[in-house]
Amino acid sequence: MSEYLRPGRYIDSDHPAVVSFAKQHALGKNPLQRGVALYYAVRDGIRYNPFLDFSKEQTFQASHCIAAGEGFCVGKAALLAACARAEGIAARVGFADVKNHLTTPALRERMGTDLFVYHGYAELLLEGKWVKATPAFNVELCRRFRVKPLEFNGREDSIFHPFDEEDRRHMEYLRDRGSHADVPVAQIMQAFREVYPVLYGMGEAASTERFG
Predict the structure, then answer these.
(1) pLDDT single digits (tens) 157-209
(2) Contacts of 118 (CB under 8 A, 6+ apart)
């Protein structure tokens, strides 16, 4: 269990910025309340952006999400897990391949597919049970694209909805990639190189793209 409480290379829960962010936002009398508060702080306080330089390891790091003010699903999941650990809550990251039926044309063009490999979420140990928490899409983004914001109560899994507000198909979970004590960056980079050669190959130029 100690591996889910101590700092990792990417879930860098001892970084001063992470410690400060967690202390500021972990409001509540017990671990469940603090975990829920941290979920919403990461969900809405860090903008979701899939147009990042995936050839740089810092893109997957919790503290970098705070410094940049944005991140994609893996970075934001790492941040939530790091903040939880900073508050003494055991946490890890989980991954799955998902099909996004509502991917924007620009993102589909860059990715070459609507399949998201290694979609990341956090898992927190609350009230003796591991619960999934997906802080990827900030609420403003959800409103813009008319998809349901993911809520989290600390007792039930928070994973993407299969349908949006207009009953269009949204997310479809295809493959479980398991849970990890830290982000398996080498594996993810390799998968991204293979599945998203255009987007991955853009490097720093990806940051010139805008999403949402």
Answers:
(1) 998 766 666 666 667 888 999 999 999 999 999 999 999 888 777 767 666 65
(2) 74, 95, 97, 177, 187, 188, 191, 192
pLDDT in tens, 84-124: 999 999 999 999 999 875 566 666 667 778 788 999 999 99
DSSP string for residues in 118-162? EEEEEEEEETTEEEEE---S-HHHHHHHT-PPPP--SSS-B---S
**CA dist., res. 22 & res. 14, Å (int):** 11
Token pair of 148, please? Answer: 């349901």
Task: Specify the residue for token string 């255009």.
Answer: 198
* Distance of alpha carbon 32 from the chain centroid: 19
Q: How many CA atoms lie within 13 A of 95 on its CB side?
A: 19
Q: Which bin fits 160, alpha (ψ -120 to 50), beta or left (φ > 0)? A: beta
Query: Residue 41: in which H helix or E strand, if any?
Result: helix 31-45
Distance CA 130, CA 47 (A): 26
Beta carbons within 8 Å of 194's beta carbon, 6+ residues apart: none
